[in-house]
Design brief:
It contains 17 helices and 20 strands. The protein is of the alpha+beta class and 555 residues long. It folds into four domains: 4-88, GIY-YIG endonuclease; 100-242, no CATH class; 253-371, Nucleotidyltransferase, domain 5 (2-Layer Sandwich); 381-554, Nucleotidyltransferase, domain 5, CATH 3.30.420. Strands 13, 14, 15, 16, 17, 18, 19 and 20 form an eight-stranded mixed beta sheet that branches. α16 (477-490) links the parallel β17 (470-474) and β18 (496-501).
């Protein structure tokens, strides 16, 4: 129930841009947001039609009072919002938890700068210029080795010897500025070249190296010319390995893809500079009840707000179309990048091609993340199985779990699948397919499921038909009741049965009205989702194969 103080505050809200701040009864900041029109945006929270999300409902129930800060423009509100969220870390704002683990390159602000690797949590703007983040640490250290080879900058903070250069100089990995073996001007030129490389400006770098090489050769400084020639050739070989996305173009774009399944969000950013794919950044997050669009908007703002590698000319992402506010974000990016950065939703032929490439990479990242989580489930299955047994009031420990799915189009070619998971891992050799005989031409999921379970359960005790500890049915309370009726008619006992409803991922138990809610982002829910999705995939694949054969026969 809204208190009187809050009601009065809502009445006083201005129709101006700014940020709003929600407090709970303990005077803690629980949410920060920005708005083009404060009054309209804040009032929308208290209109029940506008928030289906459980998270928003809980947030609204905890708002005790609010404050707001008026800004001149909406883009100022966007910048202020990021600052306030970073400062206060409100409970109900989406907070990206793993950004501190990614490393950056630091070119130190010293008389003779060095290249170092630092983590975000240790970043200090006063120490120098940062380039990153790098999500592939192994690739980053390979880049570091390459940088040290072609740009032999100082590696030691203090000289190892007073009167002679150290080993790095003798193996060509340092110019020994500590012993005055290189001029300040030549060293600064080397630093600028390293910065060009890290910024993706390879063409400009190649031109500089070639011009310098020719200059030293003309001055008969052949040792310097030879070193530059080697650097030039090493760099050329590296560029030849990079995938050419568009030949003979100066295309500078970031292409972003987001794929989400079972509480895992995988984001991939492809960095195209001067027509070449120079880097791919992968981000994986395990989330709880987060709105996909709100999550992506948060990621987008945080990534570009902390970007140090140089901004692209264009950002391509079909996900940004759902976020909207294109002009606002373009204005915000122009302030950050100090140049115009266009946003594209990937509608053109070129944009679609780039988006598909990013989506393919995101699919690989997401599948790998799911495999990693399944490996963890395998390792922790005793704990997960015990949790499920207690939470779902199971009679059996769920060593063997089976799940069933029906697939058809208007009753034709009706098929069913049975997938088997043992100790949390799929056992594909014990998957089964069923061609339904009793409902041809008239869709009836109840009769189809009755046939499947009858045919499956009559094999109890047969080889490769071990008795399941737990059966999962795809559906809600109604589907579960129907299945329990079938099992009772068959006289089968000693098997636990539950259903998983897809809309809110609720688990229904026999003879209970209220569903069990497994925690979002939990290994238990992920396992159930994985089993349900695998049954669906297996059924659809079989149905497609049958349909294809039917169409061939008709021809």
């Amino acid at each position: 129930m809204m208190n009187e103080n809050l009601k009065q505050q809502l009445k006083l809200l201005p129709s101006l841009p700014g940020c709003y701040i929600y407090y709970n009864k303990d005077n803690e900041i629980i949410y920060v947001g920005k708005a083009k029109i404060l009054k309209r945006r804040v009032m929308s929270y208290f209109n029940k039609k506008h928030h289906d999300s459980v998270k928003v409902q809980v947030l609204v129930s905890q708002i005790e009072r609010l404050e707001y800060i008026i800004t001149n423009t909406e883009v100022e509100a966007l910048i202020l919002e990021s600052h306030l969220i970073k400062k206060h870390k409100p409970r109900y704002n989406i907070l990206l938890k793993d950004d501190k683990k990614y490393p950056y390159f630091l070119i130190t602000d010293e008389d003779f700068p060095r290249i170092q690797v630092v983590r975000k949590k240790n970043m200090n703007p006063e120490k120098g210029r940062y380039y990153g983040p790098y999500t592939d640490v192994r690739a980053m250290y390979s880049t570091l080795d390459f940088l040290k080879k072609i740009f032999p900058l100082k590696q030691c903070k203090n000289p190892k010897f007073k009167d002679r250069p150290c080993l790095y100089y003798h193996i060509g990995r340092c110019m020994a500025p500590c012993q005055n073996m290189v001029s300040s001007e030549d060293y600064k030129a080397l630093v600028r070249q390293a910065e060009l490389f890290l910024s993706g400006k390879q063409s400009e770098l190649m031109e500089q190296l070639k011009a310098q090489m020719e200059k030293f050769a003309a001055a008969e400084q052949f040792e310097k010319a030879a070193r530059l020639r080697d650097s030039y050739m090493d760099l050329k070989k590296t560029l030849e390995k990079q995938k050419v996305v568009y030949e003979n173009t100066k295309l500078n774009e970031d292409i972003i893809s987001l794929l989400a399944e079972n509480g895992i969000f995988a984001i991939v950013i492809l960095m195209v500079r001067e027509g070449r794919l120079i880097d791919k950044k992968d981000f994986v997050y395990e989330v709880e009840d987060e709105d996909r669009t709100e999550f992506f908007a948060t990621f987008f703002k945080e990534y570009y707000n902390t970007l140090t590698l140089g901004y692209p000319d264009k950002i391509v992402s079909n996900e940004l179309e759902k976020v909207g506010e294109k002009e606002l974000y373009e204005e915000w990016l122009e302030i950050l990048a100090k140049k115009k950065v266009k946003i594209s939703y990937g509608k053109s032929a070129q944009g679609k091609e780039l988006q598909m490439l990013a989506d393919k990479n995101a699919r690989v990242v997401l599948d790998n993340a799911k495999l990693k989580k399944m490996s963890k489930i395998r390792d922790d299955f005793n704990e997960i199985g015990s949790y499920l047994a207690e939470k779902l009031q199971l009679k059996n420990f769920p060593h063997r779990i089976e799940c069933y799915d029906i697939s058809h189009i208007q009753g034709t070619n009706t098929v069913a699948s049975m997938v088997t998971f043992i100790n949390g891992l799929s056992k594909k050799s014990e998957y089964k397919r069923f061609k339904i005989r009793t409902t041809e031409g008239k869709p009836d999921d109840f009769l189809s499921m009755k046939e499947v379970l009858t045919r499956r359960l009559k094999h109890l005790g047969d080889k490769n038909w071990d008795k399941p500890d737990l059966m999962i049915i795809d559906g809600g309370k109604g589907q579960l009741s129907s299945v329990m009726q079938i099992i009772e008619e068959l006289g089968i006992t000693g098997i636990d049965v539950v259903s998983l409803a897809k809309k809110h991922e609720e688990v229904f138990l026999p003879k209970q009205s209220n569903p069990v809610i497994l925690p979002q982002n939990s290994s238990a829910l992920f396992l159930f989702q994985r089993i349900r999705d695998e049954a669906h995939r297996f059924a659809i694949t079989y149905h497609r194969n049958l349909r294809s054969k039917t169409m061939v026969k008709k021809k």
